[in-house]
């Protein structure tokens, strides 16, 4: 399926509509991957054979200013991460239930595609929007009960704690954990059917035709360096992932893009052509430390 929009009397190019490839292992998303409605659109058409035009770009913009006042931040793992209370998570939306944990096996990199980041004057609002879309029940959201990623990185390079780990000041890992090989991470909802032991990092933006901002790439490099070093993950390696909950297996890069999991989760373009292309460079830097 594809859709197109009529704007000022002319139809846009078709946009693919795909079932979401994010999500919990036990509760598939009810909605499609998100796509933007162009400003001024007055009609929607449903069609087939989508073709999305290429839009040249290099490094992404940073339209929102940096924070002007301090926010609550965790330094538990060697990099700053704004806590859920720091970005203003409405914990009433967090209905996932008691968290479960599994030893970290792999890291998967995503992009949001939408929002691109250009919609906001404060990126905390973007994180809140992602949270609502992931947590709230259909038709307003995917009904997962919490945000699907472990970490989110905005265009200013700010890192946010995402999926609730059980402690506000200790993102990603089971409370009381040390950053070491075999450390247990909270199960999130970013690669359908392959979430247990799979650590998800998402950059705000669409990186199909352009790169993230330099600040975002720098923060992703730092995050990958700290996590790979602490967890003993060789970022150059191919690993045999085994989901300890449902038995799903896959051979993927130790630091993968979401699209590297398509045999498990279904078709997806995430994390965008250009970000996926430069992942080997970033993983090389992470190994150098």
Commentary on this structure:
With 289 residues, the protein is α+β, with helices and mostly antiparallel strands. The chain has one domain: Peptidoglycan recognition protein-like (Lysozyme-like), CATH 3.40.80.10. The protein has 5 helices and 15 strands. The strands form 5 sheets. The chain has a 5-stranded mixed β-sheet with strand order 10-9-12-8-15, with helices on one face. Strands 1, 2, 3 and 4 form a 4-stranded antiparallel β-sheet that branches. A two-stranded antiparallel sheet has the order 5-6. Helix 3 (214-231) crosses helix 5 (273-288). The longest helix has 18 residues, at 214-231.
Task: Summarize the topology.
Blueprint: E1 2-7, E2 10-11, E3 15-16, E4 41-47, E5 73-74, E6 81-82, H1 84-87, E7 101-103, E8 106-111, H2 123-135, E9 151-153, E10 159-161, E11 184-186, E12 198-203, H3 214-231, E13 238-242, E14 249-253, E15 255-257, H4 262-265, H5 273-288
Helix pairs in contact: 3-5
């Amino acid at each position: 399926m594809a859709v197109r929009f009529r704007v000022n009397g002319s139809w846009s190019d078709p946009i693919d509509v795909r079932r979401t490839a994010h999500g919990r292992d036990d509760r598939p998303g009810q909605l499609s991957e998100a796509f933007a409605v162009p400003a001024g659109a007055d009609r929607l058409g449903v069609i087939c054979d989508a073709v999305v035009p290429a839009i040249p770009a290099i490094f992404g913009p940073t339209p929102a200013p940096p924070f002007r006042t301090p926010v609550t931040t965790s330094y538990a793992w060697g990099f700053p991460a704004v806590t859920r209370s720091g970005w203003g998570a409405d914990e009433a939306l967090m209905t996932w239930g008691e968290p479960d944990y599994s030893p970290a096996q792999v890291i998967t990199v995503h992009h949001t595609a939408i929002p691109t980041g250009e919609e906001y004057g404060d990126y905390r609002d973007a994180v809140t929007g992602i949270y609502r879309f992931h947590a709230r029940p259909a038709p307003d959201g995917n009904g997962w009960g919490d945000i699907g990623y472990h970490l989110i990185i905005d265009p200013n390079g700010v890192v946010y704690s995402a999926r609730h780990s059980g402690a506000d000041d200790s993102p990603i890992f089971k409370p009381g954990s040390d950053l070491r090989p075999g450390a247990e991470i909270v199960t999130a909802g970013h690669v359908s059917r392959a979430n247990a032991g799979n650590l998800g990092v998402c950059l705000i933006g669409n990186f199909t035709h352009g790169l993230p901002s330099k600040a975002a790439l720098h923060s992703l490099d730092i995050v990958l360096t700290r996590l790979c070093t602490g967890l003993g993950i060789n970022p150059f390696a191919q690993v045999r992932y085994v989901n300890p909950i449902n038995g799903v297996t896959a051979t993927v890069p130790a630091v993968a893009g979401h699209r590297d999991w398509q045999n498990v989760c279904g078709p997806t373009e995430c994390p965008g052509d250009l970000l996926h292309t430069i992942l080997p460079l970033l993983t090389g830097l992470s190994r150098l430390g």
